[in-house]
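Tutorial, part two.
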Amino acid sequence: MQEHNSQLRRFAACTVAAVAVAAGSCVTGAVAADAAPVSAFYTPPARLPAQPGSVVKSEPMPIFATLPGGGGQWPVAAQRVMYTSRTQDDAPVAVSGTYIEPTRPWQSGGPRPTVVIAPGTVGQGTQCAPSIAFSTGFVVSTDPLSMSPNQEAIAAAAWSSMGARVLVTDYIGLGTPGIHTYVNRVEEAHAVLDGARAANRLGGVPDSAPLVLWGYSQGGGATAAAAELQPGYAPDLNLKGTWAGAPPADLAKVLGQVDGTLISGVIGFAINGFVARNPQLRTALDAAATPQGRAVLDGLAAECIGDVIVKQRFMRTSALTVDHRSMLDHLNAIPEAVQVLNEQRIGTLRPSSPVLITSGRNDDTVPYGQARRLASDWCAKGATVTFRTNDLPPILPGATLPNHFGPELIDGYGTNNAIGYLVDRLDGKPVSGCTID
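Running the prediction step on this input gives:
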């Protein structure tokens, strides 16, 4: 078993390396596709199927998600898909995503699994949907100028090359109409779990098919929330295991740490999402922000993460407020906002399936302490949790890329080995109790 998993890890690592090189070549050497306006595919019908996880429509799309000559097709014949989910208020909503049916046998034991990938932060504009960038790897919209990379190509390639069926969700409000409710615990969890149902429909398999969830950063929060909501929201799914890498489990802690970093504009994504679902917050937040600050927040609702790095890098939210206090300070002074932040806290319910949590001790974006606290909270409820620490030393603190995204590659495919952990769960290798390293 150990040798078998070592071979799988080596295979996945080679896939990751090749796709990373290919993706880099495509980004620097090709003309990026224009994603504005978003195509008609992303417009849902007037009436949606009532059943969450129903496939509304799909269309073919070629993507480069396996190695050429590696036993599968090149490019992969994937599908852009729209499926149904539910908002935090239980209203039906359309969600888009990318579905990849494998072209090679499953490379490990047991039946072929379904893998749902929850993306890291891509932005809040509709043009930022991962499914729009999946074919080319990098999309540039020209009116207004906006940049959106496909950050999940590596994960999709690794799992697809191993023979899993893969769905990458766009979340609610990316691609499809309406605002993306960034880091909304319930809505991200619903999009992930209903994405699994939709993938099973597309793959022609029942919901008893083995399922694992994969996510880092925003995606780690989404998969963590999905893991703890699955027993109540989607007990029909056969969830075998979850990777929650660098999960933003306590948003108050995250918003405080990310302020002033390379991607501090994501605070605007969160605030915009909070106000969209809790309009009672708008008056107080409007009063706190300067006219320029309000314009920045409104503008962020149409931006991708690449735009944030260009336009709002190292921004301090104290520059957006009339009294020069941070936006977090203002949220903490509004009782309704404190309630919203508390409602987003992950760790209040017990997952019924094993979870691997990883976090960088020196992560300058998603704090290590609150991720470790999530593991402790779940352990206290009797969940099966493995927490692994990434000890990458601090490199250019506040620059995000080395200290936050560096651990993603190490934890996902290297020494902390999320792929190996999930393959063990799919192979039926037992794990129990809590391990916090």
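The chain has two domains: 2-250+356-436, 253-343. In part three we will examine how such features are distributed along the chain.
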